[in-house]
Amino acid sequence: MKLTDRANSRLWDALLTEALTEHCERELERLDGTESVGFSPEFDKKIKKLRRSVGIKEQAAGFGKAVRSIALTLAVVLSLCFCALLTQQEVYAAVQNVIKETFSDHDYITFKSDVEPETGKQLRLGYIPERYELTQINFAGNCITMQYLNAHSDSDLFVFSYSSAGSSFFDMDNERHEYVEETINGQLYYFYIATQDGEDNTAIWYNDSYVYCISGQLSKEEIVEIAENIK
Amino acid sequence: MLSLYLALIPEPSDKEKFDKLYNSYRDKMYAAAMSVLHNPSLAEEAVSESFFKIAKKFALFSGLSGRKTQSLIIIIVRNTAIDILRKERPERTEPLGDIADYSDSVAFPDVRAVLEGGTVGLLEAIDSLDSIYSDALKLKYIFGYGSADIGGLLGISEKGAATRIYRAKIMLKEKLEEMGYEID
């Protein structure tokens, strides 16, 4: 029976390998027992130089691999640490340009800005709830305060203030107010919502190196509407 | 951090392996080179050139048995010696000739006919080949190297290595025909 070409070829490969191996072995047997030879100093120098180069490429590749591996590990570890730190309020606040310290009966909030604030900023409210009118404007350094009074009640007023972030601080009651952070239409607000009658609702927010505050007998929704219509 | 320090420490095994190769085989390499060159300084040059090739292709020696390592080293030094001989005495060497196209497949006789005599007939055919051809076959069949690695070890191009293997097979087939083995 005739072998297929493929089978014949594969058998030949195996036979050739066997024969070539035997050929090698006979050759090595002839070289066995070779006497030791003295080589020249130039030869020894060349070999020493060669010996130093052996493994260097692999070392460099290995070193590069190790450095990349360590850099990646460090990046992952640092990211995890940073994420863990972000759960700490002070760190989170620091990332958001605001530092909030909570005490037993009040919160102390300060702001910082990475950018030099625009000077001489002049603002006005584009929306004022119907019952209120502007009655007073105070200038204290670069802090401007506008007071809006209810025409029908001397005790019902709200205050709008703004100042550059570096010179702003707030001391907020947290016993009769609930602290709420909320982002509305892309703006993060720090609300202090009254939990008792007669207390004011307050909203504080940071924008473009300035800090703003609205505080008064207003609902949260009214405060946000005022905030969104500042001109 | 540990892996960084480990990467900075020189890998001892490669240098140790190289030292072992050098100490074990340099005399045999010299003897093999002398059998081709018959000149001590040229034989020394062949041995140092061979160690240079070994250092460049050191990864190929990984995992080889002692006997296989020795075979590979002798193949390298013999071919290096032949290259030096060609440069020294070009009129003493025969040109390889051009092969425009070569094929990986060469039609050999029915293997069963050759097997009847064991490998004796085939050994005789291999013996008849010039060592540059039998060495190329050894690198392909015993060590399983591709044309690129074979070229690197023999100091020729990848195409040159493929051509040499093809010519080796053709010569082997012609020798087997001479010996009476019929090719279909």
Order of helices and strands of chain A: HHHHEEEEEEEEEEH
Percent of residues in beta strands of chain A: 25-35%
The tally of beta strands of chain B, per DSSP, is 0
Structural class of chain A: alpha+beta
Question: What fold name stands as the CATH topology of the largest domain in chain B?
Answer: Arc Repressor Mutant, subunit A
Number of domains of chain B: 2
| Count of β-strands of chain A | 10
| Oligomeric state, counting identical vs distinct chains | heterodimer
Q: Ends of chain A: how far apart? A: 100 Å
The CATH class of the largest domain in chain A is Alpha Beta
Mean pLDDT figure of chain B? 80
CATH domain class name of the largest domain in chain B = Mainly Alpha
Overall pLDDT of chain A, averaged? 80
| Annotated CATH homologous superfamily of the largest domain in chain B | Winged helix-like DNA-binding domain superfamily/Winged helix DNA-binding domain
What does this structure look like?
The complex is a heterodimer of chains A (231) and B (184). Chain A has two domains: 44-87; 99-227, 3-Layer(aba) Sandwich (Protein Transport Mog1p, Chain A), CATH 3.40.1000. Helix content of chain A is 37%, strand content 32%. Chain A has helices at residues 5-31, 41-53, 56-86, 89-95, 220-227; strands at residues 98-102, 106-111, 132-140, 143-150, 153-164, 169-173, 177-184, 187-194, 201-207, 210-216. In chain A, the strands form two sheets. Chain A has a seven-stranded antiparallel β-sheet, with helices on one face. Chain A has a three-stranded antiparallel β-sheet with strand order 1-2-6. The model of chain A has no long low-confidence stretch (mean pLDDT 80). By secondary structure, chain B is mainly α. The longest helix of chain B is centred in the first third of the chain and has 26 residues, at 12-37. Classes of the chains: A alpha+beta (231), B mainly alpha (184). At the A-B interface, helix 1, helix 2 and helix 3 of A face helix 1, helix 2, helix 3, helix 4 and helix 5 of B.
